[in-house]
Amino acid sequence: MEDYSKYITTFDSHPLVAHKLGKLRDINTGSKEFGEIITELTIMMGYEVLKDLKTEEIEIDAPLARMSVPTLAESITIVPILRAGLGMVEGLKTLVPSARVGYIGMYRDQETLKPVPYYFKMPENGEDYPAIIVDPALATGGSIEDSIRRLKELGYKKIKVMALFASNVGVKLIHDNHPDVELYAATYIPTGLNKDGFIVTAAGDIGDRLNGTYGYKGAKQSKA
After folding, report:
1. What angle do helix axes 31-49 and 15-25 make, rounded to 10 degrees?
2. Where are the domains of the chain?
3. pLDDT tens digit string along 32-49?
4. Distance (Å, rounded) from C-alpha 184 to C-alpha 181?
């Protein structure tokens, strides 16, 4: 398969990001720490993902002078894919407290590996802002591709995707169908997926690990 890494911005060349990804991969990392690391990684990535937000100049009184400073002129709409995407919301809300949040609920059919939608709720007029779809794993890419399509149908013009682990399979699907959508991940993994649609060298079922349910094969109960 073609190397699709050129279509995604990654962050694992930074030693702190690489270190935290290792902690996520470790099955001995408990749910509380696991969630905290996801928030930290989201914040670190968010500075780059949100670098093109529009600003405007306002006048303020600094301690020694009156001056003009930039302030945000637009917000964002954060769109987590349930359940695991919820783990990335707090990090982006830390950076942009005014952000609106929409929710897309999907689960993967275990036979077909296709996404099955069960919930879709977006904020009113959210399409006026850039939309950031968040899901820790861009594996098969089906859920994220379906989410992008739904947002475009609602009129969203600027859509970005944030993941922690991205496979070549998922990146290929999104790039082939939505080349206008910017992709970001903490790390890109070019080795494909296993028969269950998981990225083998990622962190297992991230929704399970965030919630302490540990439903993926090979995982053991870790310290909370």
Report:
1. 150
2. 5-211
3. 999 999 999 999 999 999
4. 10
